[in-house]
Amino acid sequence: MNQKLNKSNKLNLRNARSRNQKKRMTLSVKNDICIFCKDGLKTIHKKPILKENNNFLVTENAFSYTGTSYHLLIIPKRHIVNLIEFKSEEWAVLQEIINWVIQKKRIKGGSLFLRFGDNKYNGGTIPHLHFQIILGNSSEFDSLDCRKKLKVTLGWQKKL
């Protein structure tokens, strides 16, 4: 199912991290399609689908965070924006697909996160719920002088 963009379903261009990401998002707005719905995945996202089932698909992030070995997206096939729209039976299927990613990529440790709801509050760009699996390209086995923490926007705090 494809979702048209509307006032409650807008991309947040201000949160784009690169010029190329903003360019793709602008294309999404111009064509009035969600990047993570079926047509948007094909015409705008263009990364290969690594795995899919009836509810979800796995693909690479087209704009991976700097310093990652893996930055994968788990995207619900139906267009949802807020976590409260998630159906209880989808959680079990989500667990299966997360397990597949961890096993397939042999991930010993990483991060799983999502932003949900209005992206003016969570720092996100695309109003289509998606889970992100991230593995940095370093670890505590590397010395402190040659590694640093990955930084991901998960929301906003007031400056003191």
Description:
Helices cover 26% and strands 18% of the residues. It is of the alpha+beta class. The protein has a single domain (7-137), classed as HIT family, subunit A (2-Layer Sandwich). The chain has a five-stranded antiparallel beta sheet with strand order 1-2-3-5-4, with helices on one face. The model has no long low-confidence stretch (mean pLDDT 85).
| Computed CA radius of gyration, to the nearest angstrom | 16 Å
Helix content: 25-40%
As residue ranges, the low-confidence spans are none
Profile the largest sheet: 5 strands, antiparallel
Quantity of strands, as a count: 5
Strand percent estimate: 15-25%
Q: What is the CATH H-level superfamily?
A: HIT-like
**By helix and strand content, what is the structural category?**
alpha+beta
Global morphology: globular
Termini Cα gap: 44 Å
- Succession of helices and strands: HHEEEHEHE
Average pLDDT reading: 85
* CATH topology (fold) name: HIT family, subunit A
User: Total helix count?
Assistant: 4
What is the gist of this entry?
This protein has 160 residues and is α+β, with helices and mostly antiparallel strands.
Keywords:
160 residues, alpha+beta, HIT family, subunit A, five-stranded antiparallel beta sheet, 5 strands
Layout of secondary structure:
Blueprint: H1 19-31, H2 38-45, E1 49-52, E2 56-60, E3 68-76, H3 88-104, E4 111-114, H4 119-122, E5 131-136
Antiparallel strand pairs: 1-2, 2-3, 3-5, 4-5
